[in-house]
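Per your request, structure below.
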């Protein structure tokens, strides 16, 4: 006799509809594992928060978030402070959190690894505007790209669309972001700041290599340079894992930080877990409630 079905909260349009197309492969994996799945599709932004909260209220011990980082973030918000564990299944464009937790791909392998895995308590970040941070908050050129991402680029898929927009921004004769990171009585002027709750960024790249998802701390990495050349060199350094050895790049551990625009600059955008959220200032700290996550078996 099979146990109660496991709720699967999925975004039908994540990764260009990848979750919808991979559903049969996931169902086949469930049959091999001897479990049943209950598919809960999201219908609008924020819907996954409510679905996850409903699953927790119904006493489900595990809920699977099948999509990208936006879906993971919403499911996490709905489960904060509950005993229901979140398992992340990669079906988005990058699904960064799946890289962070070592969830294997493809989805046919993901399910078995998660069912045989273990639960751990994660500490997420939170902004003074109420957004939670599962992966990172970033203010700088990447947030500019996400804020200005043109609608006609979105159907191309996350990575391709963002890459096109990044090229457009590099050619645009506009001022680069200018901001400062304020920690206690000290401040650091910079052109890019990444505040990580997890190590991974834009895939398997470790922008904040000392960040610990399970500790009540954050790692902030700043690039002091404000030119296009400096931003490009920093981004390439992140991809190569050499950014922290570059001049003008600093990393530090902390529990709270405030990011502000500097020098009367244009409004500086910021993004959370890959989605544009707003403009500085914003304050980041550790959320008082914990999140139970399911890690795959090693």
């Amino acid at each position: 006799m099979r146990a109660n079905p496991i709720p699967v909260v999925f975004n039908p349009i994540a990764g260009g509809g990848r979750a919808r197309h991979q559903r049969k492969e996931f169902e086949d994996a469930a049959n091999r594992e001897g479990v049943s799945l209950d598919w809960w599709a999201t219908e609008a932004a924020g819907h996954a928060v409510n679905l996850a909260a409903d699953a927790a209220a119904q006493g489900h011990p595990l809920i699977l978030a099948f999509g990208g980082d936006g879906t993971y973030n919403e499911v996490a918000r709905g489960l904060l402070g509950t005993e229901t564990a979140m398992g992340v299944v990669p079906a988005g464009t990058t699904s960064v959190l799946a890289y962070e937790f070592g969830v294997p791909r493809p989805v046919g392998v993901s399910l078995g690894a998660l069912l045989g895995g273990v639960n751990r308590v994660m500490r997420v970040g939170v902004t003074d505007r109420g957004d939670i941070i599962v992966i990172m908050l970033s203010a700088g050129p990447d947030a500019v790209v996400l804020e200005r991402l043109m609608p006609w680029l979105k159907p191309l898929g996350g990575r391709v669309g963002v890459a096109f927009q990044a090229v457009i921004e590099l050619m645009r004769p506009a001022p680069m972001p200018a901001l400062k990171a304020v920690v206690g009585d000290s401040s650091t002027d910079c052109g890019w700041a990444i505040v990580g709750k997890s190590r991974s960024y834009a895939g398997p790249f470790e922008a904040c290599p000392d960040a610990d998802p399970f500790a009540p701390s954050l790692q902030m990495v700043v690039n002091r340079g404000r030119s296009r050349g400096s931003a490009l060199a920093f981004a390439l350094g992140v991809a190569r894992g050499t950014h922290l050895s570059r001049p003008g790049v600093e990393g530090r551990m902390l529990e709270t930080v405030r990011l502000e625009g500097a020098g009367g600059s244009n409004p500086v955008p910021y993004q959370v877990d890959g989605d544009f959220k707003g403009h500085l200032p914003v304050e980041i700290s550790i959320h008082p409630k914990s999140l139970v996550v399911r890690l795959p078996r090693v």
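The two ends are 28 Å apart (CA to CA).

Regards,
D.
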